[in-house]
Amino acid sequence: MSTYAIGDLHGCYNEWMALLDVLSFNPAQDTLWLVGDVVNRGPDSLACLREAEGLGSAVRCVLGNHDFHLLVAARGGGNLKSNPGLQAVLEAPDRERLLDWLQQQPLAVRDGNRLMTHAGLLPQWSLAQTEALAGEVQAALASDQSGAFLSQLYGNHPDRWRDELDGMDRLRCIVNVLTRMRFIDADGRLDFKANQGIDSAPAGFAPWFQFPRDDDPELLFGHWAALEGHAPYARVHVDALDTGCAWGGLLTALNLATGERTSVPSHKSLGAAQ
């Protein structure tokens, strides 16, 4: 029995199947942790969603910013950026079942001292607090007002967490931390403009994993393809899993018991990493 954490799929279904074949993955006894962004960018978001949903309890998945993009477009009245892969999801006969599955996924998965989110973890948040805050968003997604929540989700403000935040400001900030964060300042303020490597950090900002914490969790994240699976000068225990498959890089799996990484190459390059 093995558990593997896999980086951003981004619709790269063929590479995902190739990776599972190399791993000899058996859903009857093994488990996959998917770090989010199951859809968008790559050629077959629909197949990735169908596979993930069909694997049932063998998969634990967190929502990424591109997964939210699909939900906002489908159920929040948002505009769908031109992407044939996402359009295929919206036109699929089983779209509602797949969207229901996606909307039910959490923003954080925890197992003891290990935590998986899409983008990372603020140094000011404990693991228990992160679970609780992620649960607030999951409750909003499960409520009768989920469409209204999704319709108001997008925005860069507030750009710093405060415990007294409430309403949509609170929920939006939680989502932005857990699905969009890259660079922060010492007060935990988020920058939303820089999205390349660590050298692109704005003045006064640094990657979130370069700030110390009072505890020592094992953090799994994706989202940041430009890191190519590395977290330079990290001051916390982190595993960066987005190795840029949709951009011509690799799709990577991490064996959570042994720490061994297994990768397969992308079948097609889509351009520069973002």
UniProtKB/TrEMBL annotation:
GO terms for molecular function: bis(5'-nucleosyl)-tetraphosphatase (symmetrical) activity. Its EC number is 3.6.1.41. It catalyses: P(1),P(4)-bis(5'-adenosyl) tetraphosphate + H2O = 2 ADP + 2 H(+). It comes from the Bacteria. Coiled coil: none annotated. Hydrolyzes diadenosine 5',5'''-P1,P4-tetraphosphate to yield ADP. This is bis(5'-nucleosyl)-tetraphosphatase (symmetrical). It comes from Vreelandella arcis. The lineage of its organism: Bacteria, Pseudomonadati, Pseudomonadota, Gammaproteobacteria, Oceanospirillales.
